[in-house]
Amino acid sequence: MKFYIKMPIFLFLTVLMCSSFVAVAQEAKPPSQFWRNVRFGGGIGLSFGDGFFSGTLAPSAIYQFDDRFALGLGLNGTYNNQKNTYSSTIVGGSILSLYNVIPEIQLSAEFEELNVNRSYDSRLGLEDENYWYPALFLGAGFRTNNVTVGIRYDVLYDEEDSIYANAWMPFFRVYF
What we know:
Layout: H1 7-25, H2 33-36, E1 38-49, E2 52-64, E3 69-82, E4 86-102, E5 105-120, E6 129-144, E7 147-154, E8 168-174
């Protein structure tokens, strides 16, 4: 049995949070205490070769409650294309929590919900796909200043539907 979050609620909260960021950012007042604790980061990825192309943009923001705990939101957009085979568009969001056991060791939990839309070349005789895929990552990493390098594991991993090659994934995280 698959676990699915109610996406309309999740998307509404994500849009509300993003619009709040924009509304406050346009004020001419000095930054409030809230904005002093917000840190921005994310990821950019490109992969290509022998008829394959993949590009990812994944911005995120966290609120640093104290030296140990942070909570945030992220967005994810990916486009893949394998020549004469398929193309896919993947969009979604995530909720992220970070906990520093000691300054150098960071534990993380991230719930990600992605909409996968795959279109196959008609000559292959495969049906196009459109589905939601959840992932729950638990991770640990080594942290120095604003950079963390580590590994995470998707406890909801499903080999048939996942967009990831396997449940274990290294990560490189930077927040400014």
